[in-house]
Amino acid sequence: MDERIHFERNMLALASVDPPLCKRLSAAETTRARYRFLNARNGDVVPAAVDRGGAARALHSLVAPEKEAQRLIDTVRGGFLVLLGLGGGYAAEAALARGDIQGLLIIDFDIDGIAELLASKDYVRIFGDTRCRVLIDPSIEELRKEFHELYRPALSGGISVLPLRPRVDADPLSFERMADAIKLIIDSISDDYSVQAYFGKRWFANIIRNIREADKPVAPAPPVKSIAITAAGPSLDEQLPSIREKRRQFFLLATDTSLPALLDADLKPDAVISIDCQHISYQHFMRGLPEDVPLYLDLASPPVVASQTRVPRFFSGGHPLAVYIARTWRSFPRVDTSGGNVTYAAVALAEKLGAERIALYGADFSYPGGASYARGTYIHPYFRRMQSRLHTLEGLFSSFVFRNVSLRKTLDSRGWRYETKPLIGYRERLEKLATEISAELETAEGFGAPVRIPGTAERGGRSIGMLGAGAARSSGDEFLLDYAQSISRLPEPAGSSVCSYIGALNDENRDVFTTLLPTAAAIRKREDGFTTAQVIAATKGFALDEIRKVIASTS
């Protein structure tokens, strides 16, 4: 078969799955001699990369490239695989021959060189497999986007990265850059998956149980221009007099953790925000919430927290079920909670409320002087109840701080403080948010880690005030019944791969299936030996049971 026929067959297979890449390859040149093509002893075509000096290095065995590829792929346990280098496609074909490979991402460089490869042999089996995607000359952002679309850790299992060593050695700088980016992306996905695996079931159960409260009409919230946000860092103790002095100058938005400290100081906030899905969030409200103070809640917040106010103001955070509810049942406002902490969410909420100026108090993102929280916050009475002759109050606070394995001590003009990897991450995400919002953000002088706020020139366009949730399209129970039916209608996986299963879903089923992914992560963590089909079945079963419990409690 000549080069033209090989190339056209490969383009035909690729066109149905990746038209943009097919278009790029069609415009590429195949006469730049990036590769020479050798025949292995068994007759297989083996591409050899040509360096700048004209020397060629075979990318596969010249004896039996398929057997060599099989030995390489045998080192992988299954799950999701990233191949650095396409070469002759032997490793990719060996991987796709295994049913336990849930997804395959191939990364390579030089579009002209890839066009030469596709003119040399048949890659149809690779391009025609729904589990496989190919990235050529990708940017870091394209790589990140592809990972998030393809890799579903709750269903795909573990992830492996295999280099086609001769190909990587021919272009080390490009592949090293990709390898570094892949590591960062995997670390980010791993952190997110760990949170989902821990909270996935609780998020789902909370959201379903909040539907009844979320069905109530809520008056629109008027926009405000100047907002002060209180976090619960130790610096808040020293900043309370300044807050009291300026109290009439701003709308006071308290994070739930800082609420007890404000009430102890006889400072009544104008609103409170809570996003934690854990039942311990109730501790922040043990002193009560003034009746006329609005409580802004993520739909995934515990129902016991929602019960602290007559009419909670729910918003949609990042959970896919909350997003689905806002799109299909009632248009709750969307508030960015991706920063992983309530202070970040409070700043995002202030932006939605139309704030032009935001001042942060108690945002330490560290343990200044070894202290963990401001006085009056939940942890102080909690530890006072726990103290004994064997467990002193000082010892309990020290244990709380030193439980962090990533603890590091920092000293600067503010004094000394302990910082941890999670707290540093929270601060950095807030700093990034500051570059994206239109409001002017500033932090009060304190003892914690300095938050670096960008200049005004870097800010985005002006936000408008959040007007509140729209009207519900049906009653809460009717929505739950419809949602349960949609879950029941999801097709069985029938042993197919994750990519194949999701790819075969229609838009409606895909939307419903996405709402279950965090729950699936929790089930995968608990039942590590489950197959993908078993994880999906267990997730559907859990979701339907939770919905039935809620509906039964209202009947």
List key phrases describing it:
555 residues, alpha/beta, Rossmann fold, 3 domains, seven-stranded parallel sheet, four-stranded parallel sheet, 23 helices, 44% helix, 14% strand, globular
Brief overview, please?
The chain contains 23 helices and 17 strands. With 555 residues, it is of the alpha/beta class. The protein has 3 domains: 3-191, 3-Layer(aba) Sandwich (Rossmann fold); 199-204 and 471-554, no CATH class; 224-458, no CATH class.
User: How many angstroms does the end-to-end distance come to?
Assistant: 70 Å
Structural class designation: alpha/beta
Q: Based on CA inertia axes, which overall geometry fits?
A: globular
Question: Largest beta sheet: what is the strand line-up?
Answer: 12-11-10-9-8-13-17
Number of strands: 17
State which percent range the strand residues make up.
Answer: 5-15%
Number of domains: 3
What is the averaged pLDDT score?
A: 89
The helicity comes to 40-55%
- Runs in which pLDDT lies below 50 for 5 or more consecutive residues are none
Task: Quickly count the helices.
Answer: 23
Radius of gyration: 28 Å
Largest sheet: 7 strands, parallel
